[in-house]
């Protein structure tokens, strides 16, 4: 017997499109006294978190290869929606690039398929122990990873995938100055070299879209020479 993941039955959201694996994970985790909620795609994951609230889950197990969206985009959208719980990515593509861009997207750990359930339980246990850092309250703006849209009280703004990633990185650390190099890593995860003012042009466009989406008081500020901040 391995015992439970933590003393208090943790609530874990499992996002996996493979029906068989999803079942195995859900049943296996429940045997370890985890309360499991499952979703089969990015829209389902976002729906679960928006429906239950960003504090409803103690951890998220998130497949990167989902049918409707990239798990990394889903992670960013969950972070932007206020999720602070640790996110553990599952991927069949165990390449360094996936791992690094997964962390840039707000993931906390990473498990390559195939893996043994006991390894997932051990990683979850560590992640739950580590997750204490509080993040600021979410705004009235939300990111939709399936359409790369910014949804606000005054309407929906279409974003390019790069705009989506840059804004998600800012929103995930709302109130903090996010350094230029972190925004470049988030926006261009393949490590493409971009001109120095490219990031500023993207942010200028995002600033207009954030204003148009219309959550009064929310805006992108500039920390000259350092980075940007979403407040
Ligand atoms: Ca998959």
TrEMBL record:
GO terms for molecular function: phosphorelay response regulator activity; transcription cis-regulatory region binding. This is Two-component system, OmpR family, response regulator MprA. Pfam families: Response_reg, Trans_reg_C. Gene3D superfamilies: 3.40.50.2300, 6.10.250.690, Winged helix-like DNA-binding domain superfamily/Winged helix DNA-binding domain. The lineage of its organism: Bacteria, Bacillati, Actinomycetota, Actinomycetes, Geodermatophilales. Keywords: DNA-binding, Phosphoprotein. Residues 11-128 form the Response regulatory domain. PANTHER family: REGULATOR OF RPOS, RESPONSE REGULATOR PROTEIN CARR. InterPro entries: CheY-like_superfamily, OmpR/PhoB-type_DNA-bd, Sig_transdc_resp-reg_C-effctor, Sig_transdc_resp-reg_receiver, WalR-like, WH-like_DNA-bd_sf. One of its GO terms (cellular component) is protein-DNA complex. The modification 4-aspartylphosphate is found at residue 63. GO terms for biological process: regulation of DNA-templated transcription. Residues 131-231 form the OmpR/PhoB-type domain. Residues 131-231 bind DNA.
């Amino acid at each position: 017997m391995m015992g439970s993941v933590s003393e208090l039955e943790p609530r874990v959201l499992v996002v996996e499109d493979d029906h068989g694996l999803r079942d195995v994970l859900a049943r296996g985790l429940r045997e370890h006294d985890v309360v499991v909620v499952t979703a089969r795609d990015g829209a389902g994951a976002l729906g679960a978190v928006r429906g239950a609230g960003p504090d409803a889950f103690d951890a998220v197990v998130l497949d990167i290869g989902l049918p409707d969206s990239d798990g990394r985009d889903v992670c960013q959208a969950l972070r932007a929606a206020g999720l602070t719980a640790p996110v553990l990515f599952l991927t069949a593509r165990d390449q360094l690039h996936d791992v690094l861009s997964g962390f840039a997207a707000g993931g906390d750990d990473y498990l390559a398929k195939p893996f043994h359930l006991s390894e997932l339980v051990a990683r979850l246990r560590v992640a739950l122990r580590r997750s204490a850092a509080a993040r600021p309250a979410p705004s009235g703006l939300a990111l939709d990873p399936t359409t790369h849209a910014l949804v606000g009280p005054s309407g929906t703004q279409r974003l390019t995938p790069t705009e989506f990633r840059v804004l998600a990185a800012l929103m995930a650390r709302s109130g903090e100055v996010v350094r230029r190099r972190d925004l470049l890593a988030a926006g261009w995860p393949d490590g493409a070299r971009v001109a120095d003012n490219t990031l500023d042009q993207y942010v200028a466009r995002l600033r207009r879209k954030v204003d148009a989406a219309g959550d009064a008081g929310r805006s992108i500020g500039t920390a000259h020479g350092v980075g940007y901040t979403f407040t």
